[in-house]
Design goal:
Length: 140
């Protein structure tokens, strides 16, 4: 088996696994939380390695960066598996409606974190998916 086939097979199995996870809301939430914990731990480890000159040049920095990159890539793949074009359109409409809701405003201040909490997704993810699907107009 060539290296390209190995990557294609692993990508296909990841997509199949993510499809099963996305189909079960509880499993999806648990998996995303697990990925978020892995990302946090990898960032903390990378910061420790970068702050220690003995570890910085030992290859530990590269290993820590690889772990972080893998966890972040998995999180993006999970989001891509979940966010269809139609779902992105629906969530953008929900976001725009929330922006007009007075409960998310104090004068000219908009409480984005409250919108994100109530809708269950972040503005960053929404913007990324809007761009991914080539939808025109702002995500806000």
């Amino acid at each position: 088996m060539t290296q390209e086939n190995t990557f294609a097979d692993s990508d296909s199995s990841l997509q199949q696994r993510l499809a099963r996870i996305v189909a079960d809301p509880e499993a999806r939430r648990d998996y995303e939380e697990s990925l978020q914990r892995r990302i946090k731990a990898a960032r903390e480890h990378l910061a420790r390695v970068q702050g220690d000159p003995r570890l910085f040049d030992s290859g530990a920095r590269t290993e820590a960066q690889i772990r972080l990159d893998q966890a972040e890539a998995e999180l993006l793949a999970l989001q891509d598996a979940e966010w269809t074009r139609e779902l992105t359109i629906q969530r953008r409409a929900a976001w725009n409606a929330a922006l007009k809701d007075p409960k998310y405003h104090a004068g000219r201040v908009v409480f984005y974190s409250a919108i994100e909490r109530d809708l269950g997704f972040s503005l960053d993810v929404l913007r990324r998916q809007v761009q991914r699907w080539g939808l025109t107009g702002d995500a806000t």
